[in-house]
Amino acid sequence: MSFGRHRWAAVAAAALLPVTALLLAGVSAGADNGPTATFAKASSWEGGFTGQYTVSAGSSTLDGWTLEFDLPSGTGVTSAWDASMNRSGDHYTFTPRDYNRVVKAGGSTSFGFNGTGPGAPVNCKLNGQPCGGGGTPTTTTTPTTTTSHDPGPGPNSYAAAPYYYYGWGRPQPITEVMSATGVRTFTLAFILAGGGCTPAWDGRQPVATDTRWADLIKQVRAAGGDVMPSVGGWSGSKLGEVCTDAQSLANAYQQVIDKYSLKAIDLDIENTEFENSAAQDRIMRALRIIRQKNPGIKVYVTIPALQSGLNRWGNDLVKKAVEVGVPIDAWTLMPFNFGASDLGQATINSMEALHRQLKAHYPGKSDAEIYRMQGISSMNGRTDTGEFGYQSDFQDMLAYARQKQLGRFTFWAVNRDRQCSGGGSGSRDDCSGVTQQPYDFTKIVAQYR
Asked: Which residues pair with 232 in a beta bridge?
């Protein structure tokens, strides 16, 4: 409707004023649009799909949101990112992370998930109201039949990237792992020094001439996933020790980043590289160079743990990072080999101790910020010292990671995520030593994204 196209007589105009005021008031009231949510099936493949919800604030700022929906029988969600997920039967509820809890007026945020089965969400509600904002949920579906248009992992998927060792422990076909578990990102072990300050897989295959691991990475990315190499580990010759200065060490790290077009990297600092003040200093100064040259890259540091959190060397490493001024996305502890009878609770105890220690190192950060700087890297089944990490322990770790919104939850290793032949309980590199179905532990970790 348009007003002012004709010149009205003064009396007629006066008579219309109350009506016009009412109409304009109605337009103003109608402009107060409430929040809505729309669903898109971004990609699909045999047996699964990637879905995304976009939550729009409408005309008022949305301070917190809860989105829930049902899935038909035979369809489920295996993992999610940019939201916390809870499930009750076929009913799923998603709540925001700290960083996307508030959506400004006129703005939007989104979260994604991997699903299994042929169905799509129904009965969607946003803050208790229909997602469409007017009684009928708004759904947009754009299915595909290949993975070539998969948008790739969500920005938090590196937080749930289990270790996969390509040269050890009868590695399972990596795309089989993806389709069976919903995990989309892997931490590939290990890059060591291969004759001087030169990065090489297992210290043998130089990164510069590598085709084997490059082909593996292509497979993962073609299936909609990604990887981050892990530099270091327990054994072998370490770059942090062999490279003589921070710049040459940074050059070695950069070679890996450039070769595989990385968005994230893991530094697994153990053994002689960990208990070495000079190596610690070189590593942190090299990471500062890497941060400057690669804005936005995620950097995870994985180190040994005590039930009381960081040991002396761990504290020294964190102090060095603070001194040098290099941000770490998650200080990831390996909370096992304690001899604990309850590895889940022992892990939580170690994480709470780490939290107190990091608060002392980063006094300007809130509790929530500190928890996001923490990570768990556990070990499934029988550990090196004979304790056991069961599925129930991993469920406890997952619940804790979700509650505290940790920066990372991973484990060693996918290669061991199967039952030993004959049901044996020995510690082996290709099975867990506990009763399990294939990929039980990977499926648990895959839920944390």
From this structure: 268
215-220 own/partner pairs: CB under 8 Å, 24+ apart: 216/166, 216/174, 216/188, 217/188, 217/260, 219/174, 219/175, 220/174, 220/175, 220/178, 220/186
Q: Where are the beta strands (DSSP E) in 214-254?
A: 226-233
Query: Are the C-beta atoms of residues 253 and 232 closer than 8 Å to each other?
Result: no
Can you tell me which residue has the tokens 């990831």?
A: 332
| pLDDT, tens digit (0-9, with 9 covering 90-100), for 104-147 | 999 888 888 878 888 899 999 999 999 998 543 334 333 333 33
What string of DSSP letters covers 392-425? HHHHHHHHHHHHHT-SEEEEE-GGG-SPPGGG--
Are 233 and 201 within 8 A, CB to CB? no
Place of tokens 């940790």: 406
Q: Which two tokens stand for residue 416?
A: 């061991």
Q: Report the distance separating Cα 440 and Cα 104, nearest Å.
A: 40
DSSP 8-state code for residue 243: S
> Hey, what CATH topology would domain 37-139 get?
Immunoglobulin-like (2.60.40)
Domains 37-139 and 157-446 share a fold: no
Mean pLDDT of 62-79: 91
pLDDT value of residue 46:
61
β-strand partners of 43? 50
Extract the tokens encoding 318: 């964190």
Q: Where are the chain's structural domains?
A: 37-139, 157-446
pLDDT of residue 383: 95
Per-residue confidence (pLDDT) for residue 427, from 0 to 100: 62
Which residue, chain included where needed, has tokens 């991973």? Answer: 410
Identify the pLDDT of residue 111.
87
3-state class of 446 per DSSP? Answer: helix
Task: Give residues with Cβ within 8 angstroms of 192, minimum separation 6.
Answer: 199, 200, 201, 202, 203, 231, 232, 233, 236, 237, 238, 239
**Is position 270 annotated as part of the catalytic site?**
yes
Architecture of domain 157-446: Alpha-Beta Barrel (3.20)
Catalytic residue among 241, 270, 275, 387: 270
Are the C-beta atoms of residues 288 and 326 closer than 8 Å to each other?
yes
Angle (deg, nearest 10), helices 174-181 and 212-222 = 30
Total number of residues shown for the chain? 449
Residue type, 108: S
pTM of the entire predicted model:
0.69
Burial code (b: 16+ CB inside 10 Å, e: under 16) for 55-90 equals bbbbeeebeebebbbebeeebbbbbbbbbebeeeeb
